């Protein structure tokens, strides 16, 4: 966004004579006053570089202001979560575990936060809709040659504390592999319910499909990624669009055919099976049903159930290749959720694959493994699928240097032991 500042003109009451412009020779010759550090009246002369310094100072103040606004938003989301979950022994214990977990991963978090707010490769809060949370962040690769493949990413957060900034680490890692990443923000509960979240994400996908070429992205190579609750919301948006296209032929905003593949990380796809599980984990039944617009809507927002309905069966073949990732030690959302969804998709003619990672928890795939550095198996799998259609880029991404470690190994292991997830 360009902001033009109108120049100020000063006027004097006395009539001033016009001063003719200096000759080129005079302009090229510095005057004695130009060299003097002080003016005759004792004032400090502004050097030519002071304007650039003022610009940098103004830019830094804006960045600090944005960082403060983001911090305020995150604090408010945390307070909202605590207000709805209530304060009890279970949540005090979970909160203390979360504090320890965050402290142990803090060396990596600090570096990611710095990258998020101060990297020139990050375009924050691009507006894609009319709602206050209709914003997305773009992570742009350093190389600007040719159009880049694109990932539209929907972060998790238990449908309550989802936030686009959670995708900074994944955005950074994929951008290092020559992929543009758009992290889509959306309304959370109680700002909205599941229908609002799906609508926001669908609108964000539409923005990416129709505008990403302006940022160097290839509109013919767009991929959708969701994590945890974001995986559920993203696949709901994908299935709803397929049903609309199949029934009404509605491709006015975006089309399922524009999405080359969908990657779901640690997602849940059958809410009917998860209500009691989440209740035992602390996301109480009454709150969860409020998020999901009542018990009658659980089936409507359960993709695994929906693809078996007669109204959706004809839409299943329209879906792109669906690839799911899940850790076998995930206690937040059992890996059986991904397995059952893949089985249902394959039974109804969709192309679907599942990758299970032995011993990985709910946050390992998305957080601890990328913080560990080196070769990340899940990210390498995603990048290889994305680059598979371009042989040259596939070769380039394979020679990307191993990512730098952001957190010592012993701290990652301790964080895994105290993790509340």
UniProtKB/TrEMBL annotation:
Swiss-Prot/TrEMBL keywords: Endoplasmic reticulum, Golgi apparatus, Hydrolase, Membrane, Transmembrane, Transmembrane helix
TM segment ranges: 95-117
Subcellular location: Endoplasmic reticulum membrane; Golgi apparatus membrane
Reaction equations catalysed: [protein]-C-terminal S-[(2E,6E)-farnesyl]-L-cysteine methyl ester + H2O = [protein]-C-terminal S-[(2E,6E)-farnesyl]-L-cysteine + methanol + H(+)
Annotated GO CC locations: endoplasmic reticulum membrane; Golgi membrane
Gene3D superfamilies assigned: alpha/beta hydrolase
First-level EC class: hydrolase
EC assignment: 3.1.1.n2
Molecular-function annotations in GO: hydrolase activity
Biased composition (Low complexity): 25-37
Annotated segments matching region Disordered: 1-57
Membrane-protein topology: Multi-pass membrane protein
Domain BD-FAE-like positions: 136-345
Family matches, as Pfam families: BD-FAE (PF20434)
Family: Belongs to the AB hydrolase superfamily. Isoprenylcysteine methylesterase family.
Role of this protein: Catalyzes the demethylation of isoprenylcysteine methylesters.
Protein name: protein-S-isoprenylcysteine alpha-carbonyl methylesterase
Species name: Urochloa decumbens
